[in-house]
Amino acid sequence: MSSGNAFVRVLEEDPELAADLDPTSLQLATRHAIAAVEVIAPGVWEPVRPADGGNGHLGVLVLDGLLMRDVTFARAACTELLGRGDLLRPWDWEREVMTVRPQVVWTALQPVRLAVLDRRITAIIGRWPELVSAVTARAVRRASELATTQATSHLTRVDARLELLFWGLADRWGRVGPGGVVLELPLTHQVLGRLIGAQRPSVTTALSDLTRRRVIERRDDGAWILHGDPPGLAN
Question: What share of the chain in percent tops pLDDT 70?
Fold first, then answer.
């Protein structure tokens, strides 16, 4: 990871955080909420605990790019995808005392930029309850998405898991195109399997079935296209 001398105005990079501020507060908060930027090149990322231990830090906010977190225990692995707007505190894995300690590997699938929400900017954000609420909502959103992923992994049919997964990812990263909803994410069959709790051969078979039924399509450039409407809860 490298930071150089790059800094950003966080609320210009992520204006949704300031959606509830009045115009005067927005101008003031935007001027002062400046954070250092850390850049992660594609490949394995080893987070470094802040020099002060991270006490008083909110964490790091993903500005753009795509991260993958693999958690492995007893030869079983699951994966979480993180991107723009997600709030992370990766060093907490090292500090927490766990009876069962899994192996955690972070990988940047694309170049990633992170805003470092250190003690200084945490104190600034704390002046406005609306900003504190918005940042907290990001952590809650991530927990909710993980709960949804866990629930999806309990569905019996692998094709149903994949269909729900793709539509969930489309909520975050999809865009509407002429042929359907386009999802430009570098997702291999192995990664998809880890996201839904299935083995790679089962994922390959299920994807073939979904493709045959025109539920999903993969373009030559690797992007996925979702056809039709999201699945109903009956799946």
Answer: 94
